[in-house]
Amino acid sequence: MSTPPAQESFDIEEWKADVEVTPGGGLLRSPTNQPIAARVSGPGAAIGIKKEQAMVTISTNGPIWTLDLGGDENRFSLAWLDSMDAALDELEASSEPAVLVTTATGKFYSNGLDLDWVSQFPDKLEPYAARVELLFARMLTLAVPTVAAINGHAFGAGAMFAMAHDWRVMREDRGFICFPEADINIPFTPGMSALVACKLTPRAAVDAMTTARRFGAGDAVAAGLIDATTPIDELLDVAIGFVEHLAGKDRNTLGTIKSRLFADTVAALRAPSADG
Q1: 147 found inside a domain
Q2: Domain-located, residue 253
Q3: Is residue 227 one of the residues assigned to a domain?
Q4: How far is CA 156 from CA 3, 97, 177, 258, in A?
Q5: Is 47 inside a domain boundary?
């Protein structure tokens, strides 16, 4: 019988220096007693942040569009989502050859959903999740080549956002990709399940989605979650190397190819809630 692969070590003290962990456990529930978020003390469940959340910014250098997710946990607050939509609107309104690189500054790529906000407004969970899924569908079918330059931890919806890119490059020395849903009692939506599954082999999807395992860069590339690892000081250059030569691809053609390639996943991401 095979044994599960060992997880890489995690520097909890270093992690705690950047985020505030809510002490004690406890599952947050909606008025209908449905689990919506967990407050736990483990490394997959950062709840607080010690500074104001930065917004998404976008910049250009020739055909290279670089989208910076921010400098903190980069959770998907409503304001963050607004700034993301505005940045993608700007890119899509352009007509010259382009590729998109997403990255962040600091120790996080993105920690995913804004669980603090969800805990305050549980009745807004479904439309909030639906909006996040629309972002995933938009990135998955964006009509320019895309690459995620993963500078640090990518957890939950933050990891899913990275999976929606065409390619993923991760710094080799620090950071984890993790889908913690199995540990925090939040099942994947059908659309989120379809997104992760469409980018992985069935074996890798089971390992990533049912275990809440934290994948360091080496294990992530072996499992197919990412395409390459690199030292942090070469991260952007290596990521750009995946897409720069593709900048001249016709947007209408590329967008159509992606929409048809991921048609089932996009349909799941855009489907109305079964309860809505």
Answers
A1: yes
A2: yes
A3: yes
A4: 25, 32, 8, 23
A5: no
Q: How many CB atoms lie within 10 A of CB 159?
A: 27
For residue 171, the enclosing domain spans 54-270
> CATH code at 236?
3.90.226.10
229 in Cβ contact with 217 (< 8 Å): yes
Amino acid code (one letter) for 99: V
Candidates 170, 168, 166; CA nearest to 249 is 166
Structure tokens at 47: 């709840």
Q: Where are the alpha helices (DSSP H) in 155-211?
A: 157-163, 181-184, 190-199, 202-209
Task: Tell which residue, 10, 130, 138, 129, has the closest CA to residue 67.
Answer: 138
57 Cβ contact partners less than 8 Å away, ≥ 6 residues apart: 67, 68, 83, 87
Number of domains in the chain: 1
276 residues of the chain, pLDDT tens digit each: 434 444 333 333 333 333 333 333 333 333 333 332 222 223 333 333 334 456 899 999 999 999 999 999 999 999 999 999 999 999 999 999 999 999 999 999 999 999 999 999 999 999 999 999 999 999 999 999 999 999 999 999 999 999 999 999 999 999 999 999 999 998 999 999 999 999 999 999 999 999 999 999 999 999 999 999 999 999 999 999 999 999 999 999 999 999 999 999 999 999 986 554
